[in-house]
Each structure stands twice: as C-alpha cells, then as structure tokens.
Amino acid sequence: MTVNMSSLTLSMDVTNFDSSTLGFSLDRTSSNGFSTYLDEDLDYCILKKLPTDEAALVLLLMDFKNGCVKMKHSEKDNKLPRIVSGLSSQGHADQAMDGGVKPGDGAKAADQIPLKTTVNKSDVSYPLHKEGNVFSFLFHFNVSTEDQQGLYNLYFHNCYNKEVKNSVPLKFSIEISISEKNPSSFLSAGEIPLPKLYICMSLFFLVIGTFWVHVLRKRRSDVFKIHWLMAALPFTKSLSLVFHAIDYYYISNQGFPIEGWAVVYYITHLLKGALLFITIALIGTGWAFIKHILSDKDKKIFMIVIPLQVLANVAYIIIESTEEGTTEYGLWKEILFLVDLLCCGAILFPVVWSIRHLQEASATDGKGMWYRVDRVCFGLSVCLSLSCLSVFISLSCLSACVSAISLAKLKLFRHYYVMIVCYIYFTRIIAILIKFIVPFQWKWLYQLLDELATLVFFVLTGYKFRPASDNPYLLLPLEDEEDLEMEDV
C-alpha cells in the first residue's frame, strides 16, 4: 500500500502549530465495522492521545516547524507492518510505466526514494516537503505476515477546529492518492471473489427467466400483461450482474474501471431497480389480475415510487464512482438510505389496501348473496316452492364459491405481504449487519446473501402468481351476478 499526499494547503500560517494539530491515523481491523477508538472522547482529538495496545494503530503527526512527520504507535508494534518513507520497488515500477514522478506531486523523486528501512519506533520521523504553501509527503508499507493481514483504514484529523479557544476554523485542501494491491488483484481481499460470484448468480437469474418464459408460452390462455413484466425482471437482473462482474474484472486486473462498462452497468442497474419496485407495486394492486384500471391511490403510489427509485439509483451511482473520504460520499450515502427506506415502505401500501379490500369483500359476499336470494324468492309470487328452493340452493352455492375465492385471495395477499417484508428486512438490515460482523476476507458473503435473497424472492413470487387456472388469485368473481340469478329463476 502506497500513500501519497501530493498536496496540502492551509488557510493560515501553521509554522507555530503543535505537531499534534494535523495528522493521520492508520489502523487495522478484522471486520468492516467502524473503528472503536474513534468513538472514544469525541470532543477530544485522537492525535493528542498515545495509541493503546487494544487497537493496532499508528499516528502520523505533521510537525510543520521542523518539516517532518512524526510517528506514534502502540508498544506492540508488531500488529502493523513496517512503514517506510518513499515509494516501494513496485511503486517505482508503476511510476516508471506512467512516465515518472510528476513535478506537481510536491516532492522530488530523489527525496521520495527511501534511504533506509526503518522499523516502527517512537522517534521515527519522515520528511515533510514544502513548496511554497503546499506540503507533501509519501510512505508505503507491505503486509508480510498473516498476523498483519486485515482491513486497513486511513483517517485525516484536524484537531485545530476541536479546540474551543480557536474561534476561526482552519480551512484546508488536501489531495491524496492511495495505491492498494494484493498479490493477485487490485481488489480488497473480501472483494476478490465478486467477479465469479456475479457471473454465477447471473446464470441463475437467466435460468429462472428462461423457465418463466417457458411457463408463459405453455399457458398462453391464462397469461396477463403483468406476467410478461415479471419475465423481463430476471433478464434485466442477469444483465446487470454480468456488467457488474465485467466492471470488477477490470478493476481487479488494472486497478481502475473501464468507463464504458461502468456506464452500461449503471444503466442496467437503474432499469432493474425501477422495474423491481414497479412490478412489486403492480402485483400488490392486483393490476391485470382482478382489475384493469389503477385507482387514484394506486397512481399516487407510482408517482412517488418511480421518482424515488430514480433518485436512489442516482445516489448509488454517485457513491460507486466517488471515494469514501469525499464530502459528497457521506451526503449521498445518507440520501440513498433514506430514499430506499421510503421506497420499501411505499410499495407495502398497495398490498395493505388489497388485503383490507379482500377482508371487506369476504365479510360481505355471503350477506349480499342471501339478501338477493330472499328478494328473488319472495318477490316472485308465481314461482312454485320447488323452483324457489332450486334458486335458493344454486345461489347459496354461488355465494359459498365467491366467499371461498375471496378468502383464498386474502390468504395469498397476506403471504405476499410477509414475503415483501422478509425480503426488505433481510436485504436492508440482516445482510448489512452480516457485512459488518464477518471478517474482512468474508466480506463477499454480504453480496452472496443479498443476491440469494433476491433469487428466492423472484422464485416465490413467480410460484405464487403463476398463470394457472387453479390459482385462486386468477379466479375472478362473476361480474353480473343478478343476471345469472334471473336466468336461474
């Protein structure tokens, strides 16, 4: 790992600043969780404290007066690899391939070459270069043992703004380039399996999409428009995963994505996300199954969900294409979480409305039928008692049939509601918790569980709403019941 702070400009004179005013902290964790030492004494700057043995931590303090970077570390310095000033041998090779060290980096190439290999001792200092008002320095380290393997985090700290006596905040502009490479890939250890994982999962979605199309062609008489919309979803998901795998493949081999493949992936990801929420909402409203026109409430839901999904996908694209340390990253990450939560809540409303409607229908179907039976039997004085009994029996059977269909639909919608809640709960909460709990090399389990949950949700939804004549969801109640009653009479 090579860290090059190529430019640091400050809004005031810092030559008299204490060495613990500005600096970096480098730590190693075993999981993707937030570093615990950053939670301690939030009003007290971490650079003012000595690192403890509880965390594998190194502090790099900028001493502007003496023109050096001092290092503080815990007593057990074997927790972290040896930090060396300048470029590594691999870094020099990369610089040579790129045309050498650029003069705008803030340090000369001769100064960047490490004069000696230095171990982590408390008196170690590195040169802090200055050209005009621009400061720069460079260091690297190599992970050589299994004990040193982990997830490394580099934080920049500005302790000047935390001191109460400083009424004028210190403004700064910093440019840092970090080069990270594992022995076989530029990806992190927990992301190396992702290209193969996405390719395998894309094949699964392609298989279930092909099977779904086969089912639709086999039962054409029972197919509705929503079924073809459901068929487009697994194919769009499969394409999105293929392009995502290609994007990660180039990052793994070259260290940076190819813009063309990244743009194609973002487009398919946007289509997949919008299509998923639209399909779930349409199934929840019962469109094309039990009604062909959306109500005003249903239309309002789509007017809310579709723009929110577009905003959520824009936030996701910005997060994927920006660095984690930028200001925009944190803002768009919060926007993505909030918008995604609103979308998940909005798509539940059509299902809840359908359940309430079916509950009312199942409670009133029998009463309405018995009222019409009495009206027919006693309103026709010329009918014989035998004929009246025949009408009574036939309408009773029809009432029981309609009530049974309503109850079956109600049961199906309740199952669908539970499915949506479980899918949202698992992909938005449980999978993310697993991401922060598992060790760093198993970080890909989060993506695996997320894709498996999506696959299971697609399969169960297709099974529940398959085009079949015996599916209770597709058994429509008779539209003109009074005409049938009079024909029986």
Describe the structure.
- It is a single chain.
- It is built from eleven helices and ten strands.
- The protein is an alpha+beta fold and 489 residues long.
- Strands 1, 5, 7, 8 and 10 form a five-stranded antiparallel β-sheet that branches. It has a five-stranded antiparallel β-sheet with strand order 6-4-3-2-9, with no helix packed on it.
- The longest helix has 53 residues, at 385-437.
- The radius of gyration is 32 Å and the shape is elongated.
- Residues 91-121, 366-395 and 472-489 have low confidence and may be disordered.
Feature tags:
disordered C terminus, elongated, alpha+beta, 11 helices, 489 residues, 10 strands, single chain
Determine the N-to-C terminus distance.
88 Å
Order of helices and strands: EEEEEHHEEEEEHHHHHHHHH
- What class do helices, strands and sheet pairing give? alpha+beta
Low-confidence runs: 91-121, 366-395, 472-489
Shape: elongated
Give helix % range. 40-55%
Estimate the strand proportion. Answer: 5-15%
Helical element count? 11
The number of E-state strands comes to 10
- Oligomer state equals single chain
- What Rg is obtained from the alpha carbons, in whole angstroms? 32 Å
Quick synopsis:
With 489 residues, this protein is of the alpha+beta class. The chain is 52% helix and 13% strand.
What topology emerges from the helices and strands here?
Layout: E1 2-10, E2 22-29, E3 56-63, E4 68-73, E5 83-85, H1 89-97, H2 109-112, E6 125-127, E7 129-131, E8 134-141, E9 151-158, E10 172-179, H3 194-218, H4 225-254, H5 259-285, H6 296-321, H7 327-346, H8 348-379, H9 385-437, H10 444-464, H11 481-488
Antiparallel strand pairs: 1-8, 1-10, 2-3, 2-9, 3-4, 4-6, 5-8, 7-8
Helix pairs in contact: 3-4, 3-10, 4-5, 5-6, 5-8, 6-7, 8-9, 9-10
